[in-house]
Amino acid sequence: MEESVKVFSKISALLDVLASVDDATPAELAERLSEPRSSLYRLLSTLERHDFVQPGLRKGSYQLGMRLFHLGSAVSARFDDIRSAATTAMEELHDQTRQTVFLTIRRGFDATCIERIDGEVVQVMILRVGGSVPLHGGAGARVLLAYQPTQFWTEFVSQGELHRYTATTPVTKDALFTELRTILHQGYSVSNEDVIPGITSVGAPIFNYSEKICASISVSGPRPSVGDDALAQTVSLTVAAAEEISRRLGAPTEIAAAGTESAR
Asked: Are 14 and 114 in a shared domain?
């Protein structure tokens, strides 16, 4: 059983690497994963037989296979209602700010991006559609954490040491809990260079008909364009977008208004 878990972990790591690049050779994968090339050849051969990987654009390289596309499409369909409700508000927020807009959901202790619209600065953004970050990592993620019961906060920090992206990332229990209480009080989250240097993000909660948080919307861009003197306007636009999406999902007006602690 332990050996099977190790193999599965290797496969998971291999697929994660292939998801981050156009394609990769066994030699490149061996270097990235610190695994013997012979072991990766066997894994790739098995995955190719089951259509999880396929030949890449370069000779001898591999890329993700169509079976993953079909599986991903099945998972993606589960979030069609949220994406459909959010499309117009996301486009308007993007047009108003010219920055990157994210739609994220909570999945366990992670925030997963289910939609994004690229802004003027996209090369520094770490969160792709389908990608995840820990719930303390950035404005959109922390909003999803803030509106969970406090017992969940404790469970989250009890996992172990939180990843420190920059010097200002809230990684201690006291720092993170203080930040989460601030989010609940004001109804939105601000991330100032605590994930990527030079980048500010603003996130707001999205509620559904059951009066519970179901997603977050956030906008990210260079600090001078999103934060500093532009922060008040960015917050206003982001919160308004979140409230509009919440209404489209059937949330009562008093719950759709961001900052309602009873929606936890």
From this structure: no
